[in-house]
């Protein structure tokens, strides 16, 4: 188990602010577009986001082969070149396989692990605790929990999150995408001092920070890293008048990015910006034409 000193140091490297769940761009033939990926990484660094999350939901990790995951991760590490902390998604519904992955994956250049709640199995709260206990004890790096019941059909309660936060110093935060503000506020109120509560929903990042949250792992910041990360920084500094202006400046586009599925929405936006194509892998498909037109219209008005 990681010592308190090591955990605190790792947390301070990337703890507050905006992380970006980076997309994995594809070519027309479905192969990974490494040149587009390079451009997006540089776009995020230029936009001054605080860290990048690799192999998250937005990165379509579940449709990438193991060799592709390695290639994408290594390419991002190479392009980032130490300029920004990197978090790697290692999670799933097979606890033993995750423990094996943590033991066998080359984590050079990675700052922390993001690990999603098990999906499909639908474990109870004790099952979730035991799962993440195994992850925490196996991980050589700090772990951020990822609660996203809309995708996993399994909500990790505030009681379970707090139990894990208090029992394992290697677990340094939670990406909370339950949308349940009461649950999130209960975690914030009762968490250990250095435990991070990170928004997993772009639309409610501002109120989560107002309640005492530490930042966001964002989708929209793939396209608008400068404005979204500045909104987050201003909110964290208590400058809510400035933060609100940026929040509402972005809100129409943000809503459209999720109107017909994610990451199809953000990839459509990135294609409009010329950063990558909008191709996604089945079973995902591109956003419908109505949302596409509305998104293009809103982006054209954006200044």
CATH class: Alpha Beta
The count of strands amounts to 8
Please report the distance between the alpha carbons of the first and last residues: 48 Å
The proportion of residues in beta strands is 5-15%
Which structural traits does this protein have?
single chain; 303 residues; alpha/beta; TIM Barrel; eight-stranded parallel β-barrel; 8 strands; 48% helix; globular; disordered N terminus
Give the SSE layout.
Blueprint (H helix, E strand, L loop, with lengths): L3 H11 L2 E5 L12 H13 L4 E4 L11 H15 L5 E4 L5 H10 L7 E5 L8 H14 L4 E5 L1 H4 L5 H10 L3 E6 L4 H10 L5 E4 L5 H6 L4 E4 L6 H12 L3 H18 L6 H9 L16 H13 L2
Parallel strand pairs: 1-2, 1-8, 2-3, 3-4, 4-5, 5-6, 6-7, 7-8
How would you describe this protein?
With 303 residues, the chain is α/β, with parallel strands linked by helices. It has one domain: TIM Barrel (Alpha-Beta Barrel), CATH 3.20.20. The chain has 13 helices and eight strands. An eight-stranded parallel β-barrel has the order 1-2-3-4-5-6-7-8, surrounded by six helices. α2 (34-46) links the parallel β1 and β2 (51-54). The protein starts with a helix and ends with a helix.
